[in-house]
Amino acid sequence: MKIQRAVLTLHWCGSWSPPRSVPNSVNGWWCDEKHEYAFLGFSYSVAACQSVEQLKSDFRDIRSRFQGRYVRLYGTCDRYGFYNDVIEAAWTAGLGIHALIWFGFTGGNEWMRRRDELFRVLHSNAKARFVTRAVQFGSEPLFDRVIDPYWLADEVNRAKWNVGQMGIKVTVSDLAYSYQREWNKGARHVLDNVDVVDAHMLPYFSPQATTARNSWPLIMQDLNWFMKNSNGKKIYLSENGWPSSTSSNIQPNSANAVANVRNEHDYYTLLDQHCSEFKRMTGGGVGWFAHIYSDSQEGGYGVYNQEGGLKFPFRPRTEC
């Protein structure tokens, strides 16, 4: 058993191939959080309801080409059983998943059905707990005000009871700004109850934004707030990047903010340059995701362009 656990730990901290059979326990399975800093993987939109073959191809690319450990899901696919395909693709590729319960941007109750479907698969698929590292409630649900913060905190606690025994962390993916606004009374209660902090880091939208190379103070402003207010919890930059172009959905709040491929590349170079700082931060270091895998999933943010080519050389540091 000790040998098996040592091999399993290597799954998330280095190279790995699937075991012949599904283990009986997650004990020793996941990499220690203190090793989860620097680049971890990609945000990946599932709005296209990709086939299992496409998921396997993309996940293998993330693992082998970029040495990613995780995929942070973004958007939603409401096809029944879709998360079973995600699990199979991740298991085959050797990736972990940060799953997502999608609220959308305008409210409504569809998220409840998505929550119930995700939990159904987590309990019925034998591989689920060996693939699912975390469950996120929403992508900026506090910022979009699609759910009352006290209700959201209760959902987090119920989810922790539901899947925590499987070794799965529960969190909310949102901006520091969302927790700081007076109109979000109760948001701090959410932060108090999550297992880990999934922080959105999008400095391009700051009123002080200029170029990506100059964005480190903006990054640290939000990181310092999270470190001060999250009681030492592990922090991941879950939705994190700088756009290469503007659109109706990507508009700056600073007249000096520059969106182009050079700045998108410069942003990730900047994160690599501060690898040692990330390693030393509260909670065992800060790990980051690149938002997003491809422009075909969300235009302007992809590392790949619409035609499937890399927009710039991308070999982020996974350790230092």
Strand order of the largest sheet: 1-2-3-4-5-6-7-8
Secondary-structure element order, as H and E?
HEHEHEHEHEHHEHEHHE
CATH superfamily: Glycosidases
Number of strands: 8
Mean pLDDT over the full residue set: 92
Residue runs with pLDDT of under 50 for 5 or more positions: 1-12
* Oligomer state of the chains in this structure: single chain
Integer count of domains? 1
Secondary structure tally, helices:
10
Distance between the termini: 31 Å
Catalytic activity: Hydrolysis of (1->3)-beta-D-glucosidic linkages in (1->3)-beta-D-glucans
Protein name: glucan endo-1,3-beta-D-glucosidase
EC number: 3.2.1.39
Family: Belongs to the glycosyl hydrolase 17 family.
Describe this structure in words.
It is a single chain. It is globular, with a radius of gyration of 18 Å. It has 320 residues and is an alpha/beta fold. It is built from ten helices and eight strands. The protein starts with a helix and ends in a 30-residue tail after the last strand. It has an eight-stranded parallel β-barrel with strand order 1-2-3-4-5-6-7-8, surrounded by seven helices. α5 runs parallel beside α7 (187-193). Helices cover 36% and strands 16% of the residues. β3, α4 (110-124) and β4 (132-139) form a beta-alpha-beta unit. The chain has one domain (37-304): TIM Barrel.
